């Protein structure tokens, strides 16, 4: 390490400021209500639309894993939306 590098580090230390605290718990306005969320029939469709994953000899296993991950993510999102009261009520007129 040269003296040139050391002088840069020293000059930067004196100018540092303590970070300002963030207001995580501040009151925010209520968001606008959007349309109710509809569950999808095939959450893996978007993953399959991208084509085969580029994992060489493990393409089939990778595709299965990504399909499973997309189904789990969709189930989790649906559960959270349901808990928040954002899921569209089932339509009984189709029966």
What is the average per-residue confidence, as pLDDT, rounded to a whole number? 80
**How large a portion of the residues is in β-strands, by DSSP E?**
under 5%
> Biggest β-sheet, characterized?
none
Give me the count of strands. 0
Looking at the structure, what is the overall shape? flat
- Number of helices in the DSSP assignment: 3
Give helix % range: 40-55%
SSE arrangement, N to C: HHH
List unreliable stretches of 5+ residues.
Answer: none
How widely separated are the two ends? 78 Å
Q: What radius of gyration results from the CA coordinates?
A: 25 Å
Q: Which secondary-structure class do the elements indicate?
A: mainly alpha
Could you outline the blueprint of secondary structure elements for this entry?
Layout: H1 3-13, H2 45-48, H3 59-83
Verbal overview:
This protein is mostly helical and 95 residues long. The protein has a domain at 60-88. 42% of the residues lie in helices and 0% in strands. The mean pLDDT is 80.
Summarize, please:
The chain has 95 residues and is mostly helical. 42% of the residues lie in helices and 0% in strands.
Task: List its traits.
42% helix, mainly alpha, 0% strand, 3 helices
């Amino acid at each position: 390490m040269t003296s040139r590098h050391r002088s840069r580090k020293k000059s930067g230390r004196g100018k540092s400021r303590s970070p300002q605290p963030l207001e995580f718990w501040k009151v925010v306005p209520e968001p606008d209500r959007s349309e109710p969320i509809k569950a999808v029939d095939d959450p893996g469709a978007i993953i399959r639309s991208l084509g085969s994953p580029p994992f060489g000899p493990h393409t089939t296993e990778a595709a299965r894993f990504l399909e499973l991950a997309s189904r789990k993510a969709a189930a989790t999102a649906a559960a959270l939306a349901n808990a928040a009261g954002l899921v569209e009520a089932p339509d009984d007129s189709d029966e």
